[in-house]
């Protein structure tokens, strides 16, 4: 019998179905899981940080949304534009032109908070709002800031 | 001994995991996963008011083609693990 703590990677598509099932059938109010990828740097780090995801609701600009952006391709990024029922999001750590469009029915959930370096940060917290405002203000310098971040 | 109340087995991506029953949040970064055999034992023991290693061994022997001494050792091992994880009580 297996011993100790192991980390298991699950197929993304299966996991998304699982989350949806937890919300719809099990009535869970939130699910927590470890993030993968580097597109939400510098705030979220691959394999270290977690997101607390809540069921789909109407996103606002600045919300972090998990959505299916292409068939079986999912992203957890920040909403930057809403127009005529189409939402546009972009990873904080992604190039400016790398955006994804999606509609409401593609939303898996919205981030209500994060666990960054083991500490909980809710999206309503001052810390998160300040970080978001600063990162937005620094948009023109994003490339150079991310390049520096990668080196430290 | 007996299995503590308030847990349930759920099937997540093909894994048998133990979650607090009725919890509003499910934390995929901290889940207790049971293999097929452990899940079988759990499901049969959770209804019992109390059980012993003998009961567990009998359950294993009823379902699996295994020598009694080996079955007993496995049961002792899993009870230790469950105790560490505070899943069972006296």
Question: How would you describe this protein?
Answer:
The complex is a heterodimer of chains A (152) and B (90). Chain A has 152 residues and is of the alpha+beta class. Chain A has one domain (12-151): Umud Fragment, subunit A (Ribbon), CATH 2.10.109.10. Helix content of chain A is 23%, strand content 33%. Chain A contains 3 helices and 8 strands; from the N terminus they run αββββββββαα. Chain A has helices at residues 12-24, 126-137, 142-151; strands at 30-34, 50-54, 64-70, 73-83, 86-90, 100-102, 107-116, 119-122. In chain A, a hairpin with a 2-residue loop joins strand 7 (107-116) and strand 8. The longest helix of chain A has 13 residues, at 12-24. The radius of gyration of chain A is 16 Å and the shape is globular. Chain B is of the alpha+beta class and 90 residues long. Chain B has one domain (2-89): Arc Repressor Mutant, subunit A, CATH 1.10.10. Chain B contains 3 helices and 6 strands. Chain B has a 3-stranded antiparallel β-sheet. In chain B, helix 2 (53-63) crosses helix 3. Classes of the chains: A alpha+beta (152), B alpha+beta (90). The interface between A and B is medium-sized, with 20 and 19 residues.
Note the total helix count of chain A. Answer: 3
Largest sheet of chain B: 3 strands, antiparallel
- Indicate the CATH architecture of chain A: Ribbon
Mean pLDDT of chain B: 90
The helix tally of chain B amounts to 3
Give the tally of β-strands of chain B: 6
Q: Kindly report how far apart the N and C termini of chain A lie.
A: 41 Å
Q: How is the secondary structure organized here?
A:
The complex is a heterodimer of chains A (152) and B (90).
Chain A: H1 12-24, E1 30-34, E2 50-54, E3 64-70, E4 73-83, E5 86-90, E6 100-102, E7 107-116, E8 119-122, H2 126-137, H3 142-151
Antiparallel strand pairs in A: 1-2, 2-7, 3-4, 3-7, 4-5, 5-6, 7-8
Chain B: E1 2-3, E2 7-12, E3 15-20, E4 25-27, E5 32-34, H1 36-45, H2 53-63, H3 68-84, E6 88-89
Antiparallel strand pairs in B: 1-6, 2-3, 3-5
